[in-house]
Amino acid sequence: MKRAVIEPGSVLGVLGGGQLGAMFTLAALRLGYQVAAWDPHPEAPAHRVATHSFPFPFTDQQTLARFADLVSVVTYEWENIPAELCRSLEQRKPVRPSTAVLSVIQDRLEQKSFLSSHGFPVPSFAILTAPDQLAQTVRRVGYPALCKTATAGYDGKGQWRISRESDVREVERALSESARPGLRWIVEAFVPFERELSILVVRGSDGQSCTYPLVENEHDEGILRATKVPAQVSSGLAERAALLACQVVDRLEGVGVFCLELFQLPGGELLINEIAPRPHNSGHYTLDACSVSQFEQQVRATCGMPLGEVRLLSPAVMVNLIGEDAAAFVKGAGSRTLLAIPGAVLHLYGKPAIRPRRKMGHVTFLGETLALALDHAQQFRDRLAR
Ligand code: AMP
Questions:
Q1: d(C-alpha 26, C-alpha 385), whole Å
Q2: Residue from 78, 79, 115, 146 whose mutation best tests the ligand 1 pocket (most atoms within 8 A of CB)
Q3: Architecture of domain 195-385 in this structure
Q4: Does domain 124-189 have CATH number 1.10.287.90?
Q5: How far is the CA of 190 from the centre of ligand 1 (A)?
Q6: What pTM was computed for the model?
Q7: In angstroms, what CA-CA distances link 249 with 211, 311, 348?
Q8: pLDDT surpasses 80 at 4
Q9: pLDDT score of 154
Q10: Which residue has the higher pLDDT, 154 or 226?
């Protein structure tokens, strides 16, 4: 079952129908597949483009049976999909990446323990099972620290910074308010990184893998704002990142697209922040700047097809359109102004409601040189800020 090749014409199942699910769907349709998208929200972007839509709760057993009957293979667009659902589907159809991989990745404690037990570099961390043990747990990793929920956090949600001992009380209170039986947290040393980097790696069912260029990310309040491609680092550092990414995904025996988020320390050392078992926001540039996109690779790897040859065709800068920025942009003459910028490629996700911190779209600025792409991106960001 593991090596089954899924031919064009088959129906691919995707769990989660946000922008990543929609972009996966478009890539699959282009390659001649059909797609069944399952997302509880009727307005999720993938429902607009999928061949079959399942806007039902992930706990719905009837939907589970229908979905499993219809699809030839299952993938997912984010790691917070219930692992039990993937496990049930996996009894009937291949799930790529597998439920075993998803289970390791979707719990930050499991993920960091997996990485450190195999000798991969991660920030120091400790497990927290009760809010009243916060002070002693932070003492083990040292100040400043970050406390994160072990499961279900993303884009900086479910994270608290603890800069000094006097912050402990307040964070402890916040944790107690959100505490539920069985909820765990990870307390991590705050890393004084020089840069945030990420790298995509694609691994096929035959164990062959390929990587995309190392990119540099800018975050604000835990949310990705912009990605610079390629990262301006030495070729040695880029090679180390690529090797690390391949080794991690080999060790996981993952099949699919993975993204490693990395911290670069001032001395050049790399630490893994986290792994995503799916295409990543920092890989959206691949749609416009590469010979084959991360979404097409997800289709290929999911279907057991040969992976595409990765070539960067142009330097690029990707800028996210988030919440209020997007609101201002869509309401004003923003899109006209933007479309007039040479090399700007606009992607709007068609989400009906604008909410703070919600990713509404992104723009990829292509340029003959990275300096030119950066210049165009900066002009646009200055305009958004005004
Ligand atoms: P995460 O959801 O874990 O990817 O965190 C979101 C962002 O928070 C990261 O991209 C970093 O900017 C920041 N962050 C997370 N963990 C750490 C850490 N241990 N040290 C410093 N910054 C961090």
A1: 32
A2: 146
A3: 2-Layer Sandwich (3.30)
A4: no
A5: 8
A6: 0.96
A7: 11, 21, 31
A8: no
A9: 66
A10: 226
